């Protein structure tokens, strides 16, 4: 079994949680490497439905260790709430769960700035989740961030907090005209979180590399998606982290030579939450149909997701920038009963035909998608577990997706439950590329 990175190939919510849950059964460690509680990963097993925001989607297996890597921004209140909910449901969270001491904290002023900045942007707003993600990463890059490890050193934590609040309160009061924060209150609150979390805060990079040296297998659980990546996404309508494959290394301290394969997860159509360009968006009843059948409401904020046809241009872009070794296509069942399907194979803008993803936001916003039409299928694919069970039109649709993205499909998801999955080839059975002594 190899070490595999799971990546969203579109704009998030592709079904990464379901796929990670399936693969985690045969994996020793699952590690989140970027993002924070803006993520919402749904897992449905025979017992219950779980939505993971920070804790990796492998936590349901007793033998799997779950790690929050250094690249994640952690809101301790959200983390503790999630731990409590899981423990109430009988899920053990002890030595099987660790958080990097290098992971940056989300503080109350990050959430306040996130919300106030969005409000002040008016129609230019990004539509963030309001979880303080952008401001926390901004502090990390500005080298004024406070890390999980600082929670274990109260005088140092207090000093950093005091220094930061001078600046943050200035912004909150003068620029945004909203409430400010008191050092004592935040300090006491965070020392309470420290007490609860201290046994989990460790050097996860050493833990991961020691495990890899013993040939343990690691699954890297990406959050968001390639087109929300701060470099490769539809900037500035993106999140503030590296949600593409490169983030798996910087966000964990595991080197690229230790990674064997990268699987991109793509829905059989496209969705997006929040603002930003979406060339294949459908605002008519076809889009509403996808939204209703796919139950396209955000797992974190409950917002309705925008829906549209499958966009092969963005998925091919994801294949390139992540070096995808395979794809998992999810929610095929949602297309059941569509008479005709459209696949976007390029964009037209001001007389130019784009076959690759343009970096120019204006072109992406105003372009006309170029479609290939395909016949739909009337038979049900819901719950199919074997490729042979799929209608011929569905097979043709998947073949065309493979062709257009120049990437093989390893898994097909045909329903939200664990077993509603076709495994064409187990992506964990990827060969180790690195030389052995
Ligand atoms: P993630 O953020 O990528 O983990 O995806 P989300 O959990 O936010 O959203 C995916 C939604 O689709 C969840 O409600 C899943 O239960 C559901 N889902 C996943 N795979 C399938 C599928 O193949 N068919 C259907 N109908 N639902 C699916
Ligand atoms: P998972 O991991 C879909 C979107 C927000 C907004 C933009 C920036 O469940 O796929 P942020 O709060 O990150 O600053 O918001 O990114 N966004 C997501 N969309 N799935 C997600 O995560 C998302 N996380 C953030 O809607 O447009
Ligand atoms: Mg989600």
Overall description:
The chain has 2 domains: 315 residues, Adenylosuccinate Synthetase, Chain A, domain 3, CATH 3.90.170.10; 97 residues, Adenylosuccinate Synthetase, subunit A, domain 2 (Orthogonal Bundle), CATH 1.10.300. 31% of the residues lie in helices and 19% in strands. It has a 10-stranded mixed beta sheet, sandwiched between helices. Helix 3 packs parallel to helix 5 and helix 5 crosses helix 6. The longest helix has 22 residues. The protein is globular, with a radius of gyration of 22 Å. It binds guanosine-5'-diphosphate (GDP), 6-O-phosphoryl inosine monophosphate and magnesium ion (MG).
Which helices and strands appear, and what pairs or packs with what?
Layout: E1 4-8, H1 16-24, E2 29-32, E3 41-44, E4 49-52, E5 65-68, E6 73-74, H2 76-88, E7 97-100, E8 104-105, H3 108-121, H4 133-141, H5 154-175, H6 183-197, E9 201-202, H7 204-213, E10 218-221, H8 246-250, E11 261-267, E12 270-272, H9 285-293, E13 306-308, E14 310-311, H10 312-322, E15 326-330, E16 340-349, E17 352-354, H11 361-366, E18 368-375, H12 392-405, E19 409-413, E20 421-423
Parallel strand pairs: 1-10, 1-11, 2-5, 2-10, 5-7, 6-8, 7-9, 11-15, 14-16, 15-19
Antiparallel strand pairs: 3-4, 12-13, 16-17, 16-18, 19-20
Helix pairs in contact: 3-4, 3-5, 5-6
Bound molecules: guanosine-5'-diphosphate, 6-O-phosphoryl inosine monophosphate (IMO) and magnesium ion.
């Amino acid at each position: 079994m190899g070490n595999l990175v799971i990546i969203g190939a579109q704009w998030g919510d592709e079904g990464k949680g379901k796929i990670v849950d399936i693969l985690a059964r045969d994996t020793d460690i699952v590690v989140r490497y970027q993002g924070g509680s803006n993520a919402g990963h749904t897992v449905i097993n025979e017992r219950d439905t779980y939505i993971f925001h920070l804790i990796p989607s492998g936590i349901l297996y007793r033998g799997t260790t779950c790690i929050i890597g250094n690249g994640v921004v952690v809101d301790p209140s959200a983390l503790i709430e999630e731990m409590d909910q899981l423990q109430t449901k009988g899920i053990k969270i002890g030595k099987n769960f660790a958080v990097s001491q290098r992971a940056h904290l989300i503080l109350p002023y990050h959430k306040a700035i996130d919300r106030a900045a969005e409000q002040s942007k008016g129609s230019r707003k990004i539509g963030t989740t309001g979880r303080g993600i952008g401001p926390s990463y901004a502090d990390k890059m500005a080298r004024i961030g406070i890390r999980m490890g600082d929670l274990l050193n109260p005088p140092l934590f207090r000093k950093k907090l005091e220094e930061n609040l001078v600046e943050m309160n200035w912004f909150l009061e003068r620029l945004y005209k909203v409430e400010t924060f008191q050092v004592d209150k935040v300090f006491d609150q965070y020392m309470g979180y420290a007490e609860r979390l201290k046994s989990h805060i460790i050097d996860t990079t050493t833990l991961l590399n020691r495990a890899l040296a013993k040939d343990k297998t690691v699954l890297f659980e990406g959050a968001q998606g390639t087109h929300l990546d701060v470099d490769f996404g539809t900037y500035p309508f993106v999140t503030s982290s590296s949600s593409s494959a490169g983030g798996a290394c910087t966000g964990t301290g595991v080197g690229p030579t230790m990674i064997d394969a990268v699987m991109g997860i793509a829905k059989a159509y496209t969705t997006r939450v929040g603002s930003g360009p979406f060339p294949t968006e459908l605002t008519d009843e076809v889009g509403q149909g996808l939204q209703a059948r796919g139950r396209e409401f955000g797992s974190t904020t409950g917002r309705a997701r925008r829906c549209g046809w499958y966009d092969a241009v963005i998925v091919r872009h994801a294949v390139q920038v992540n070096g995808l070794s395979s794809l998992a296509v999810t929610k095929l069942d949602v297309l059941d009963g569509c008479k005709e399907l459209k696949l976007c194979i390029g964009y037209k803008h001001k007389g130019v035909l784009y076959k690759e993803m343009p970096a120019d936001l204006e072109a992406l916003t105003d372009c006309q998608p170029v479609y290939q039409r395909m016949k739909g299928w009337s038979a049900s694919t819901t719950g199919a577990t074997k490729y042979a069970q799929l209608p011929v039109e569905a097979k043709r649709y998947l073949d065309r997706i493979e062709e257009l993205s120049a990437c093989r499909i390893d898994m097909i998801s045909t329903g939200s439950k664990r077993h509603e999955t076709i495994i064409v080839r187990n992506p964990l059975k990827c060969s180790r590329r690195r030389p052995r002594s």
